[in-house]
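My main concern about presentation is that the manuscript never shows what a single data entry looks like. An entry of this sort, consisting of the sequence and the corresponding backbone structure tokens, reads as follows:
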Amino acid sequence: MLAVVAPSGYGKSCLIEQWLSDQGDLFAWVRWDSHDNSARTFWKYVSLALGRLVPDIEQDMGRLLSQSTELNYDEYVDWLLNRLEAVSRRWDRPSRFTIVLDNFHHLTHPDILSSFSRLLEYAPHWLKFIIGSRTSPELGLVEMLSKGRAVLITKARLGFSDAETKAYMQALLGTELSDTDLQRVQAKTEGWPALVNILCISMKSGLLLEEALSTSETTMSEFLSQQLYSHLSSDQQAVCNLLSIPGKFNNELARLLFGDAGARAFREFTRQDYLACASSYEKGWFVFNPLFREWLANRVELAEADGEKLDRMIDFFADGHQFEEAMSVATRTQSWERALQIIQAAYPNHLQLYQSGSLPRVLELFPADFVERQPYLLMAKALLCFSLFRYEESKRYLELLENTLEETHDVGGSLHIGAHFLRSHMLRFTGQVEEATHHTRQVLDALKEQNSPFLCWCYCGLTADSFLNDQINDCVDYAFKSVALAKKAEDGACLIASLGWLLPALLLNGKLSLAEQVAEENLVWLKDRGLDCLPDMVMVYSQLVTIHRERFDLSSAWQDYRLLQARLDSHTDPRNIIHARYVVLFELLVSSGHLEEAQNVVTELEAEVRSNYTEQDFVGFFDLKAMDAVVALKRGQVQPLLAWYQQRQQHRPDVTHRERNLALLECVAELFMQRDCSEKLASIRAQSLENGAIYRVVKADILMALQLSMQGKPDIAQQRMEQALSLAQSAGFVGVFADDLQQLEAFIKKAQQQASLEKYCQQLLALRSALPFSTGVEEGATKAEAALVEKLTPREIEVLQMLAEGKSNKWIAEQMEVSLSTVKNHVSNVFGKLQVTSRTEAVSVARKVELL
């Protein structure tokens, strides 16, 4: 990377342009402005730049942007690196391809800086970046310089030396400066090329050097700009005033606004480089000298500008789909109605605006009182507040919207439907599922009539509501409709959300094989369309972890967890982060016998919720005390379970999917207290069977068998256990028995005598030697970990050894002479087989089992 860092007017762009011209390499140029400070916009234009070399990258990125409310940018960078790796192998690849990122000082968003730093770290050797910026970019520049991976050019090297200033002024003025005057010029301008340039032009127009140098340092550029401006004709001044508003202009715009006078002024400006220069990245467009334009922008009284000409300027940019420039003119001139029209033209529906990543910035442009009078902006504001968990604010804006729609008789339109849809989401995520379903059905009926592409989201909402209400059969039906409609609409975000509910529903429904098949087919569909980078892919991988855990394929479960973990970032929905980072990990650690780590996860989860959220944000998602009780029970400690049970009796929540699962844990507590819970278990079983929750039917049968055994009814208990085994065998369940195998072993051995259950029982009993704990009390860590370690390949052991030495993935790739993605796959496999989530853990476990 080459970074050219200096204030405006030091010739950064000219230097870069000249260097590129001398080199003759293939390049792309991107110039940023203050409207581009979002990671989505950044990667969109970087992809456009790379499109000169790899055309389909631009197309694939466009598909990603159209599908996601937020993008996992680190994951996108990894995807991009894999694409670039393929380019590296092409015989016709250029020896060097350069991307210029000009005006980089406008880019300060952490997501831009972190993801771009990742690309710089792993980019192939033939891809170079040149950054032009007024401030030093926060890209780890010091470290890059120390490693010889970057070159920095600052204003000290760009400013004119004494000799250069003397030669430059002599060339423009035709006279040679004395040494005394030269020193005074250098002292005033500090070799600032743009200022020296304006000084020369002003002197050519009749200004005396003594007069120019007598001004204060803080006003010299303003003084010289005033002098330059005063020598323009009145027509030229009028053109300058208006063209300074958008920041760029061309001959067509000048003629549109001022006719022949504008065309003449345009020729005069572009003939003299000191006034304007050609844009480096847009052919036919020009920009004013930066110091002169800054002075103009501060001078022009926008309130006095010709309103008709401003409207024509806005239309000119909007008609050319240059919406950012059109918005800039409209907002600078406080033409709020026009600004709103531009936003609506750029983003016909709110989902597009939300997915663009521009929603917060757009809303900041408008005054609050204007926002509260405009239905489009009220809906946008409600959507933004909802995404930030500010539900009360979101409700207020929705109420304002609905009142406004009633006053304008627009009830039943798209905004009215959108308000219902958003309200249903808020109700769902605050535990008011029945009300959410009611609103969703209202939206569904309206969208059916319109044959809307957003119909899939309604069915996705009904899928979620059915799952939360424990209506598993209905959930599966709605989910398959949602999946089909989402694929028809090419809506990857809706497909992922639907799979997040469908996969656990199929598991509960006793259809593990179908769940695996559905997951595999749809992962292929998403990957083929480049949509597997969407942030909420963690929902799919979370469910794959659960499926493999139920199969008791812990190695695959840990590998899926690694994939899940790689997709977690600040753009993932907080509920999915909590579920994936804590709940899924907790369950996997318990199944793997890592009880101390599981307990730590519960502690971290409690701290996370207290620090960053409220309990209302996660209604129905988990029960911290129940998680504590599960870990304690595995350690042979019953008291936490009994304490949790007593607390539960003081508050009886509504019957939902989560509550019925917790009701089973209550029955476990009652068994320890030697209470008869037969009726409760029978009720849970009947309701679960009716609603399609077969997994819970099996759990209820197991507990009923244990209850019967405690009551001295061994034959009936055995019949009940065999019923559970038969159901579990059909469904493919394994984990449901593995968690309590020692307690159930006698039942399973006896059931093995049944021909229909023989092989399944043998499979369960074979797990006995692989279980990380057997007596309810945790065994030694080394024995537990050794039992779970799948044999590593020689290549994986080689990678593990380098990890132990603290080597980076890039270093390992270079040493092994393989691609970065291959190393990442090896690391992921190592983590999965060792059932760990970090390098430190991997090395620790490997040493315990003597792999290192």
